[in-house]
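Renewal narrative, Specific Aim 1. Our central claim is that a sequence can be written position by position from structural information alone. The example that follows is taken directly from our test logs and has not been curated for this report. It begins with the structure tokens describing the chain, in the order in which they were read.
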């Protein structure tokens, strides 16, 4: 495109790229299915939070996963002390910063950040 030299790839390179892409898609689908299964089982715990973190690190524009992540955080906050809540929100803000490095214009990340800031204990 516009001033860039097109580099032709061999069929072998194209096949290797396709195989790698299919592996990533399969991994993404497996993690997504695991998240939905845990949510249906009402297992809103740290493990589910880690799974959502993995998926959102790959694709921060997956809005449903952000909503599930919010549900998990709300569940973890129930009965927690102020220090634990503050630590959880600090971890979330660090994660959001990493997601913004992947996609600086992600509405999902900014919506989550706004939610975190409105729920952080003062």
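The sequence written for that structure reads:
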């Amino acid at each position: 495109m516009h001033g860039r030299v097109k580099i032709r790839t061999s069929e072998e390179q194209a096949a290797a790229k396709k195989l790698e892409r299919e592996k990533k898609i399969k991994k993404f689908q497996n993690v997504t299915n695991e998240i939905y299964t845990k949510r249906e089982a009402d297992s809103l715990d740290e493990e589910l939070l880690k799974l959502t973190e993995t998926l959102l690190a790959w694709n921060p524009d997956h809005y449903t996963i952000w909503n599930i992540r919010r549900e998990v955080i709300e569940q973890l906050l129930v009965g927690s002390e102020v220090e634990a809540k503050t630590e959880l929100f600090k971890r979330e803000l660090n994660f959001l910063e990493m997601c913004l490095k992947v996609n600086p214009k992600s509405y999902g990340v900014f919506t989550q950040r706004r939610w975190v800031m409105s729920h952080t204990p003062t």
